[in-house]
């Protein structure tokens, strides 16, 4: 009877492994996974087994997508210890430790399990996570070990990149050396915690890209990036941990982040079922300004030519080099600061926040207090508020040189320290006014059809011309509903895209002073840009033409 039972179970075991191996997603201490056998996650999304990368002759234990024809490895166990030949086997010990042995003796790779477990089991989950757990306990908190804690070059949905602040444990991506060799190269991607936490792509000691500060809703480098249809992401920062994570919006769409050694890039790919290929969705660094610190200290980068400008209130440190497009020396204050007798601040418009290495944060202080705090500390060079989801609360201050700033029309405003003579008093007053209002609320401005404006102004007739400001002529008009308007036709030189222009109009609307005329909206026609104001007959013409100019000019310079 007992003999029979043994025979029966051994028989079943063999059948399961050889015939329907695709159904198996677990390995227990009595079983071996030899080269050629695989585990497949429950619904068949991922597969674990031995593989040979590129034209290498080595064998590695790895995890790849099961349901696509192109082998795409997302995790490698023994990336530093390749196996020569197909004698590798994976097993799990009763302690919960998993190991890869060759020729049944030499251990080439193992986990460091110290847990006491009753009934350890190794399971490949549908997320692509390989986990060791105790029996049927599938609470992720209780996993004894998981491959998601030891990323290779790929970030999968629901996998964390970051730091456990209680233990100091880091999870970061490391690129493969090359197509044939999964061993770790010097290209890494993780969260760095000098100053405020930021995601950073590094090649060796050199920073290649950083994401900017998290504003509660997005990263400063790409604040509106979450509105894509494929995935959403989050950045968690509390006492216990700091990490980046992403989720699929539609579980049947595949998306992964991978480090590409040859390009020195962080790339995101999504799978295209139509073409049966991975499509490049995004890369970092990207554009003119992607590369870290292109414009040197206190430089400001823009996706235009030349890429670098000094921040407002600064001048090139070495003119000759700067003029020959060598921006590495950056910029210095054009008028020296004098902290004792009082400096001031100037708002430089929407930018990706500077490198946070030398920065400080308080999540509750408001913008006005933030300014006061920064002013008092002579080494504080810039400040801003953050956390748009909480109405723009939070105070971040930067010390020393400002690095890796980039113009970004949908990002935060940054206030930088300049000598009192260059400071922007209007701005400072606005700061006071704006104390209890939501700094980041999205003001809706109307976008008028060109036809509407042309009709209202009688095709910009000479009779309707009110005057001429530095930025272009102003016309009076009457809308079909009887409302009287003043239209400022801006000179055509700006070369701004429509979205950028709309963002600036929103800014002007946000900044407009109570005593001035109300901005109703804008009008975009080809490369022409127009601002539409409420017309108030009792106000002096100068206010239309020059009053607003102060703000428009400030805005225009701020965005340069
Ligand atoms: C791999 O094994 C083969 C045959 O056993 C041997 O000829 C070869 O030198 C080995 N290669 C390495 C890199 O150990
Ligand atoms: C591998 O080792 C196990 C026990 O450690 C043994 O039962 C088995 O025969 C060995 N297999 C080979 C191929 O040496
Ligand atoms: C196990 O611990 C050693 C020493 O701390 C470490 O070098 C090794 O990478 C660890 N192995 C795994 C698989 O984490
Ligand atoms: C930190 O955030 C994570 C994710 O929201 C949460 O699980 C954890 O409990 C938080 N820890 C603390 C100390 O708030
Ligand atoms: C999810 O994606 C699949 C494949 O692209 C598509 O067929 C399906 O309609 C999508 N579902 C939703 C809810 O968008
Ligand atoms: C690296 O990126 C280049 C360009 O996007 C691409 O052609 C290549 O296949 C990528 N390499 C890997 C290993 O994905
Ligand atoms: C650099 O360019 C600026 C602006 O074009 C010019 O005023 C300045 O004289 C130039 N300086 C040198 C040293 O070439
Ligand atoms: C932030 O500032 C508030 C108000 O000044 C203070 O009460 C709080 O302790 C500060 N928090 C930190 C973490 O410094
Ligand atoms: C200014 O801030 C820096 C960084 O937080 C700090 O080390 C320094 O002590 C502060 N100086 C003053 C005068 O508060
Ligand atoms: C404009 O001024 C006239 C005369 O000063 C006054 O009667 C009228 O009420 C004013 N209109 C508005 C809208 O302020």
**Helix/strand structural class:** mainly beta
Approximate shape: elongated
Helix content: 10-25%
Strand order of the largest sheet: 27-26-34-30-35-32-33-31
Q: Count of DSSP E strands?
A: 41
Domains, number: 4
| Attached small molecules | 2-acetamido-2-deoxy-beta-D-glucopyranose
How many whole angstroms does the radius of gyration measure? Answer: 30 Å
User: Counting H and I runs of at least 4 residues, what is the number of helices?
Assistant: 7
- Residue stretches low in confidence (pLDDT < 50, at least 5 long) are 1-22, 434-442, 550-560
Q: Determine the N-to-C terminus distance.
A: 87 Å
Assess the beta-strand content as a share of residues: 35-45%
Structure description:
- The protein has 560 residues and is mainly beta.
- It has 4 domains: 25-150, Agglutinin, subunit A (Orthogonal Prism), CATH 2.90.10.10; 151-286, no CATH class; 298-442, no CATH class; 450-542, 2-Layer Sandwich (Phosphorylase Kinase, domain 1).
- 14% of the residues lie in helices and 38% in strands.
- The chain contains 7 helices and 41 strands.
- The chain has an 8-stranded mixed beta sheet with strand order 27-26-34-30-35-32-33-31.
- A hairpin with a 2-residue loop joins strand 40 and strand 41.
- Helix 6 crosses helix 7 (541-558).
- It is elongated.
- Mean pLDDT is 84; it is low at 1-22, 434-442 and 550-560.
- Bound molecules: 2-acetamido-2-deoxy-beta-D-glucopyranose (10 copies).
